[in-house]
Amino acid sequence: MRSEWIEDLLTLVQHPNFSQAAAARCVTQPAFSRRIQMLETWVGAELIDRRARPLRLTPAGERHAHEFREILNRLETLRAKIRSDASGIVEFRMATQHSLAITRLPSLIEALAQHVDEYRVEIAIRSNARDDCVDQFTRGEVDLMLCLEESDNLLKNRLPWAGRLPVGSEALVPVS
Q: Which residues of the chain form beta strands (DSSP E)?
């Protein structure tokens, strides 16, 4: 079993079309289809209902899709820990909204640098729209998310499993 097969399956969940999913993974559609079939052979069950339009997961695939995502996240976390131990460098990926990358992020990075002595910290920052940041965090593509949260649209409702730490508040000021 190869981790790229799981990544392919999760991409197919996002893009319920073999051609679009293959393009997103930068492989040909026949190669992508073979990799999905190899994963299904390895698990011993169909995961994709190919008769449905648009494509969708079978009940077994639907029941276990989140576990595939968790496996990839745990594998990436293990890899990062081993690299950190071997190199003394802690790497993590962060998603943040464009405005916060300019206003809040520099001071957070500076505060982090003051509290980390034994490791060198490397941060990969992805600056996007709020919904894109939430999607990346949900899919496990980033380890940390910095975003704005409105009182009537709390992220804890969308991400009940995620820890939250408010780092400030903003005031909306009309200017004319």
A: 48-49, 56-57, 89-97, 120-128, 144-146
Angle at 6 between CA 52 and CA 138, to 5 degrees: 90
pLDDT digits (tens, 9 = 90+) for 29-57: 999 999 999 999 999 999 999 888 888 89
Q: How far apart are CA 131 and CA 134, in angstroms?
A: 5
Per-residue CA distances from 100 to 5, 58, 86, 104, 137 (Å): 35, 40, 32, 5, 16
- Is the pTM here over 0.70, yes or no? no
Give 135-167 as a DSSP string.
HHHHTTS-SEEE---BTTB-HHHH-TTS-----
**98: three-class secondary structure by DSSP:** helix
Residue 92 has φ and ψ, to the nearest 5°, of -150, 155
pLDDT tens figures, 77-125: 788 778 777 777 777 788 999 888 888 888 888 877 776 666 677 788 8
Of how many residues is the chain composed?
176
CA 111 to chain centre: 25
